[in-house]
Fold:
Amino acid sequence: MWLLYQFPLCPFSRKVRLLMGEKGIGYELVRESPWARRDEFLDMNPAGQTPVMVDAAREGAPLIDSMAICEYLEETVERNAMITGTAENRAEIRRLVAWFDGSFYCDVTGPLLHERMIKRLAHRASPDAKGLREAMKAAIQHLDYIDYLLDHRQWLGGATLSLADLTAAAQISVTDYLGGIDWKSHEQTARWYRGLKSRPSFRPLLAERMELLSPPSHYDDVDF
Structure:
């Protein structure tokens, strides 16, 4: 059985969980707050970041970094491959995964997590209104790009569901939990996201809650 060290609003852990759900891989969650800098966790990953995945059935080095974990799962579990197609198609999927994990996280998800979660839990401080406004403004621009992709493709990475969709959904789900998305002007993206939310792999994520933080009422509604 795999042990996945994570916390409920870690978008990178959510990406791994969505992939494992699509592939039908069993796992057990281990709650880890990386801002606490717990010694035992730092021994596994000195960078102190989630997710970290460990095979409880055998001794071995932990798997670290969400993309490294996803590539490992793609290489070792043939069922429901999520990086598929021609070499060009696979490159596009990886490009989008890097974009969501990089640009989207740095501009939107990361600042919202810092202001609305980490400040409250780790520092007992209030969020900065300017930082929140900038993150929500960036979210509009990023969702405009998703709308553009969906105007030209059935799924973000091409004709079929891929790791690009799972990565985007993981980031968006955290942003949505934190109240950072105005869905009214992005019906194309909202339609795509409703489809992702209705998948069995997504349901466990929607049921989870972070202490001291409640999501908007539409968060777990697949027909929002």
User: Anything to note?
Assistant: DSSP finds eight helices and four strands in the chain. The two ends are 35 Å apart (CA to CA). The chain has two domains: 2-76, 87-207. The chain has a mean pLDDT of 95.
